[in-house]
UniProtKB/TrEMBL annotation:
Protein's recorded name: DNA polymerase III subunit delta
Organism (species): Pseudorhodoferax aquiterrae
One Pfam family recorded for the sequence: DNA_pol3_delta2
Length: 335
């Protein structure tokens, strides 16, 4: 996948500046991970005749090593679920524990991985271009992990650079934030986002407006939604299906994904109830107006459900309960 033009501009700006630690922050889904990886690729690129501001060459041995997830001078710190999703290898011990079903992949950045990253930073560069540590999403560090990183940020080895990326910078330790140069992620222009998404393989032009609306104007998140098989047609049909209590419409969705979709639907209904235009769904796809009090109660219940969505006792039962709540809320009628 080509680097989006708005990320290219940010990459050029950041590479023209000096610093050993960057914090990329802003609303989630703006390409924090992609930009962080682009910075690491450029720092480690071995094309000597290429100005670093242009980014990595994409053809040297270093760029290839990153492409195949095997660069000796790049340490990637992600929750294990993200590592597996993005094709990064786990260490042998962690992979064996997961393969043997002794535990599930972690959704936090584990302390063991952070300690290994600290040790990595103290080693000599294998390829002679320095080392890079990428942390994403940085808010998934627990207190112990964050404090372990903090010590290294305070006294960094001479040839290692850090890039932390997050969609929730307020959850990071203030001391972590203060030791990094901050970069606020830029939003793409709507026309630019639409053109880029339409140019991606397999994305139909007619689906682009729906996918962008569904993700709040975040094109890379829209592309991930498309790649996961969540079609524009299914998104448009979801409000009416939930109003009918149709479980078939939520097949294949994890509880967290369904809650996110329902929160967006509730948000749009609250907006239209006050005379504003919906943001995530087309007005024609929304069910009939519902009672304001019921929508507010539904919103609070969704917030409560979101806190346990990643660790439900029974995902199937949780989905059924969510759909039942949605049906009740969507069929309430104003007096």
């Amino acid at each position: 996948m080509s680097v989006a033009p708005w990320l290219q501009r940010q990459r050029t700006s950041l590479l023209a500046q000096r610093g050993h630690a960057w914090l990329l922050h802003g609303p989630s889904g703006l390409g924090q991970y992609e930009l962080a990886l682009e910075l690491a690729r450029a720092w480690l690129c071995e094309r000597a005749d290429r100005p670093q501001e242009q980014g990595a060459c994409g053809a040297c041995a270093s760029c290839h090593a990153i492409d195949v997830r095997a660069h000796a001078d790049l340490c990637v710190l992600l929750p294990e679920v993200e590592m597996l999703a993005l094709g990064w290898p786990l260490d042998e011990k962690a992979q064996a524990e997961i393969d043997d079903k002794k535990r599930k992949p972690s959704r936090e950045i584990r302390v063991e991985a952070m300690r290994a990253a600290v040790e990595f930073g103290q080693r000599t560069s294998a390829r002679g271009r320095g080392k890079a540590v990428l942390v994403f999403p940085a808010e998934r560090m627990n207190t112990i992990s964050a404090n372990a990183l903090l010590k290294t940020l305070e006294e960094p080895p001479g040839d290692v650079r850090f890039v932390l990326a997050t969609g929730a910078a307020h959850l990071l330790l203030p001391t972590i934030r203060s030791r990094c140069m901050g970069h606020q992620m830029a939003w793409p222009q709507p026309e630019e986002a639409s053109q880029w998404l339409q140019a991606q393989e397999g994305v139909a032009a007619a689906d682009v407006p729906v996918l962008l609306a569904a993700t709040g104007g975040r094109p890379e998140e829209a592309l991930r939604m498309h790649a996961a098989g969540r079609s524009a047609r299914a998104w448009s049909a979801l409000p009416q299906a939930l109003a009918r209590g149709d479980m078939g419409a939520v097949g294949g969705l994890a509880p967290a994904e369904l809650i996110d979709a329902m929160q967006k639907l509730c948000h749009d209904l609250l907006r239209t109830g006050q005379g504003a235009a919906p943001r995530f769904f087309a007005a024609a796809d929304l069910p009939s107006p519902a009672r304001l009090e019921t929508l507010l109660q539904w919103s609070r219940k969704l917030q409560d459900s979101a806190r346990i969505a990643e660790h439900p006792l029974n995902a199937g039962l949780m989905l059924e309960s969510l759909v039942a709540l949605a049906k009740t809320a969507l069929n309430s009628r104003p007096p």
